[in-house]
Amino acid sequence: MIYKWEIPNIWPNKRIGMIIKGTGTDRFEFRKCELLSEDNTICPNIVFECREKFLFDVLPNSGLLLIVSKRVLDIMNNFCEGDFQQFKANIFVGEKEIEGYYLLNILNKIEILDKEKSIFTTILDTDAILNLKKAVYKYEDLLGRHIVRNADCLSHILVTEKLKEIFEKEKIKGVEFGLE
């Protein structure tokens, strides 16, 4: 099975970090699924309004960047090394910088959407997907990868059932995995 990485449905807005524009590499660079220069890539500042105790393993944010704790990074490095690139995240609660979080740059994308069976709308006069209402995939797996972006809708991060099960077993907080 294939699952979509999602912000939990009941997540309070004040626990979703806000990206501060102009403080780092543009968030859309992380959707290209390309290896980024470690010397020239800076995670933008992400500020949370909640108390530090409400920062969990995965930090949902306004830019849909993958921000994870060292604990999640270790799981990912052990299970799907080579599927992503990591950068130190710049996380703040108010003015206080919080250490121990990383931005993940997913390196692979797959043209996985079966456009004949899926239900979606496109941006006027383009093939770009604006709203994906029902996704039907061409494949049952991610072609040997454990985490990828959907090439037809780059904001969608897809994971394998095995990675989902590891997160559930480890009780990772801050992410849900949904079926499309």
UniProtKB/TrEMBL annotation:
Superkingdom of this protein's organism: Bacteria
Protein name as annotated: Immunity MXAN-0049 protein domain-containing protein
InterPro entries given in the database record: Imm11 (IPR012433)
Immunity MXAN-0049 protein domain mapped to chain residues: 47-177
Alphabetical list of Pfam families matching this protein: Imm11
